[in-house]
Amino acid sequence: MNCLQELYHTYAAKADFLCVYIAEAHAVDEWPMGEAVTLKQAATMDERRGAAAQFVASTGFEWPLVCDGMDNEFNRLFGAWPTRFYVVEGGRLTFKAELDASRKFDVDDLKTFVKHRVVNNGV
């Protein structure tokens, strides 16, 4: 999480950042992962907003954050579950971080891409 915060603080003055909070990846009532995740899948927007607020409060996450609708349209259109990172420029998707073989993200790829775009395009 620290590397995402660092990326935000480094480039927030030159690029827009937005986190879209989607459906719970491991809700206790759908796909439990042990005691680490204790949230049920949200049934209403108020519940989803509450879960997002809990995420921000528990992690100190500082990016601007919005919630996907209950129709999960963002997740459906972008394949965002459980976690993805995208760069959108001029209305076009120009970068999508993928999981590596160990099922983790190499955030360095995202950082390198953003840095390159900001430096070379004067974003």
Beta fraction: 5-15%
pLDDT < 50 runs, ≥5 residues: none
Distance between the first and last residues' Cα:
24 Å
Question: Order of strands across the biggest sheet?
Answer: 1-2
Sheet/helix structural class: alpha+beta
Element order, helices and strands?
HEHEHEEH
| DSSP summary: helix tally | 4
Quaternary: single chain
Characterize the main sheet: 2 strands, parallel
Instruction: Give Rg in angstroms.
Output: 15 Å
Percent helix range: 25-40%
**What overall geometry do the principal axes of the alpha carbons give?**
globular
Can I get a quick summary?
The protein has helices spanning 2-11, 45-59, 73-78, 107-121; strands spanning 19-21, 65-67, 86-89, 92-96.
Describe the fold and architecture.
The two termini are 24 Å apart. The chain has helices at residues 2-11, 45-59, 73-78, 107-121, and strands at residues 19-21, 65-67, 86-89, 92-96. It has a two-stranded parallel ribbon with strand order 1-2. Strands 3-4 form a two-stranded antiparallel sheet. α1 (2-11) runs parallel beside α4 (107-121). The mean pLDDT is 84. The chain is globular. The protein is an alpha+beta fold and 123 residues long.
Features:
123 residues; alpha+beta; two-stranded parallel sheet; two-stranded antiparallel sheet; 4 helices
Give the topology:
Elements: H1 2-11, E1 19-21, H2 45-59, E2 65-67, H3 73-78, E3 86-89, E4 92-96, H4 107-121
